Amino acid sequence: MLSRILVANRGEIALRIIRACRELGIETVAVYSEADCSAPYLRLADEAVCIGPADCNQSYLNIPRIISAAEITNVDAIHPGYGFLAENINFAEICRDCGIGFVGPPVEAMRLLGDKVEARRLARKAKVPVVPGSEGVVPNEAEALKLANQIGYPVIIKAVAGGGGRGMRVVHNDISLRGAFNAARMEAEAAFGEGSVYVEKFIVEPRHVEVQVMADQEGNAIHFYERDCSIQRRHQKMIEESPCPALEDRDRQRLADAAIRLIKEANYVNAATVEFLLDKDKKFYFIEVNTRIQVEHPVTEMVTGHDLIKWQIKIASGHTIRMRQKNIKHQGVAIECRINAEDPANNFSPSPGTITEYVAPGGLGVRVDTHAHQGWTVAPHYDSLIAKLIVHQKTRAEAIATMRRALQEFIIHPIKTTIPACLEILSHNLFVKGKIDTGFIERNF
Ligand code: MV4
Question: Distance from the CA of 63 to the center of ligand 1, in angstroms?
Fold first, then answer.
């Protein structure tokens, strides 16, 4: 087993990883920026190392500083959490070259799946349904036009190096395709240093459904069912739940099987999320793989009873998965609300500042993943997540009721938060009926 891990992240996920390590008897080294120097979770780590100023580029994204911290403190491995360096191939490669373990997939798997065209190719090979579209990279406008007319409008132009909604253009006709093709290429080049794009049929108002998978070095792979993450605003998820309310058991099984086939085809190791779009006819299409633990992983932990961070660490320690798929059960319904320091009344603009009053909800079926507390200052330098509020109940209706009362209990003053927005969504009759898709927020609010 790994005996000492550096946590290359901050906030609630740093605390989440430190907790898992403590329970496994693994020592931790926390790293922090000057903005986070007073964070209480730092005291829960065995050591804490300041890696620089508040600016991410000089701290949490600074590879030499993090590697130096790892060398000085003599850790066996680094857990990157999510965001920051979690999907940085260069960072994973440097860890490998320095003989430092990476709690995540092998560099090769990151590279393969980070290329969306390669990921699509792999999916086809594994007989996983992909969105109808180009075979590979679309080299020029003429090819894009030809393809769009074969597939039929609307189509979507996506960056090969993209993901999470960046560098995408939806196109409805030949005229707008001309401008959009080059715009997408330029945007991708600027954002990722890689301008290649591909084309897919645009699925209108799909659900976003993702499967949680875990694989070991021997090629064993298991899944922990799916999450429905359709409630998002401008590609920022707001509410996630498991199971997906639209899926019957048979379709759920087919979706999970497809995710497992893909992950095995990629020779994947450690935690992955396989993302799909689910259309109005409940047909699913693979879109991309996230090669990290995700923000919303607690939803899956609640319904399966499995600690996914511990699974990650055990697999990174070389453990073989002995758990049989049939022994991974799915119980009840879990919902997560992301509590961000944003003002819903002001177009969700950031609302940093000091929390002078903080009272977290509790009671049966309520989990709060946070590093926040009374007196904590939300810095403007980082993403605005303050807390994740997760509920677990027998039925979806009960989960919604518990979430509503927990949101009502939650006091975070005086900064503005997304609590009122989450409450509104949870009160919407279409949400209550489970009739949601990725356009829900834009259409209804
Ligand atoms: C799509 C799509 C419709 N059709 N691809 C956005 C983020 C990236 N992961 C993929 N995305 C989409 N790809 C096809 N062929 C619609 C989206 C999309 C979306 C996907 C998941 C969650 C929220 C979304 C919001 C808008 C668009």
Answer: 31
Q: Which atom of ligand 1 lies at the shortest distance from residue 200's CA?
A: 15
Alpha-carbon span 260 to 126, nearest angstrom: 9
Q: Which atom of ligand 1 is nearest to the CA of 133?
A: 15
* Other beta carbons less than 10 A from residue 143's beta carbon: 14
282 CA to middle of ligand 1, Å?
16
Q: Is 73 in the pocket of ligand 1 (CB under 6 A)?
A: no
Give, for 367, the enclosing helix (H) or strand (E): strand 366-370
The pair of three-digit structure tokens given for residue 414, joined into one six-digit string: 């005086």
pLDDT band at 163 (very low <50, low <70, confident <90, very high): confident
Instruction: Look at ligand 1, atom 26, and give the residue with the nearest C-alpha.
Output: 438
Q: How far apart are the first and last CA of the chain?
A: 49
> How far is the C-alpha of 49 from the C-alpha of 429, rounded, in Å?
49
Question: Is the alpha carbon torsion for 235, 241, 244, 245 positive or negative?
Answer: negative
d(CA 136, CA 266): 18
CA of 153 to the centre of ligand 1 (A): 16
Neighbouring CB atoms inside 10 A of 86's CB total 23
Q: Is the CB of 52 under 6 A from ligand 1?
A: no
DSSP symbols for 44-69: GSSEEEEEE-SSGGGTTT-HHHHHHH
Closest protein CA for atom 12 of ligand 1? 165
Question: Which helix (H) or strand (E) element contains residue 260?
Answer: helix 249-265
Q: Which atom of ligand 1 is nearest to the CA of 202?
A: 4
Measured in Å, residue 308 CA sits from the centre of ligand 1 at 26
Query: Which pLDDT tens digit goes with each residue over 93-115?
Result: 999 999 999 999 999 999 999 99
Q: Read off the pLDDT of residues 383-418 as tens digits, 9 standing for 90 and up.
A: 999 999 999 999 999 999 999 999 999 999 999 999
Length of the chain (residues): 445
Residue of the CA atom closest to atom 6 of ligand 1: 165
Which two tokens mark 314? 């055990």
Which strands form 207-215's sheet, in the order they lie side by side?
284-290, 270-278, 207-215, 221-233, 236-242, 333-340, 385-393, 366-370
Tokens of 68: 């130096």
159, amino acid identity: A
Distance 199 CA to ligand 1 centre (A): 13
In the structure encoding, which two tokens stand for residue 401, read together? 């009721």
**Catalytic site positions:** 292
